[in-house]
Automatic annotation (TrEMBL):
Name of the featured protein: histidine kinase
Biological classification of the source: Bacteria, Bacillati, Bacillota, Bacilli, Lactobacillales
Coiled-coil residues: none
Record domain Histidine kinase: where: 1-155
Cellular compartment(s): Cell membrane
Length: 160
């Protein structure tokens, strides 16, 4: 895999720009809480694909005047990227299934939610597995969802 130094906050800003219109249409606030200096050694394309899918979900399944917040934490051993929303949430039963290909929560429970193929989270899960990482989803119906992707710092720390 081609690993490069990625300025994560910039990548998040780029995705926010792409999705700014759909977010504004629902009065959803996009918050980039990633440290401006945070550099990750990673496959840039995989990271973009992960961000694209998680942020698009956080916007699509949000509620009017909601918020999407992307944050980042790191330790010597691993880094974690979290996309949190104040959206419709996912029931306990559905939480175990949303990573399956083509699985979408019943559209009646999702209100009139928009289009999708049900592949986004399955793709994220594959990419994260390829990076030897883990996904942790927390959600509460009517309150929101947070998806955390944790990847080991299995490679040399890039120079500052
Ligand atoms: P695609 O991403 O392929 O365009 P999709 O968004 O329906 O379609 P996934 O991203 O795999 O597919 O998500 C699967 C299902 O999980 C969604 O249809 C939705 O019901 C639920 N879901 C995913 N993310 C969220 C979220 N942040 N809040 C609430 N429900 C979610
Ligand atoms: Mg999706």
């Amino acid at each position: 895999p081609k690993l490069t130094k990625v300025l994560l906050a910039d990548l998040v800003d780029e995705q926010f720009e792409v999705m700014q219109q759909s977010a504004a249409g629902q009065s959803i606030e996009l918050v980039n809480a990633v440290d401006q200096h945070a550099v990750i050694l990673a496959d840039r394309d995989k990271l973009i694909e992960i961000l694209k899918n998680l942020i698009s979900n956080a916007i699509k399944y949000n509620q009017p005047n909601g918020q999407v917040r992307v944050s980042y934490q790191q330790t010597a051993a691993q880094w974690t990227l979290t996309v949190a929303d104040t959206g419709i949430g996912i029931s306990q039963a559905d939480q175990t299934r949303v990573f399956e290909r083509f699985y979408r929560v019943d559209s009646s429970r999702n209100k009139q939610v928009v289009t999708g193929t049900g592949l986004g989270l399955a793709i994220v899960a594959e990419l994260v597995a390829a990076m030897k990482g883990q996904i942790h989803l927390e959600s509460q119906r009517g309150v929101g969802t947070s998806v955390a992707v944790t990847i080991p710092q299995s490679h040399a720390t890039p120079d500052r």
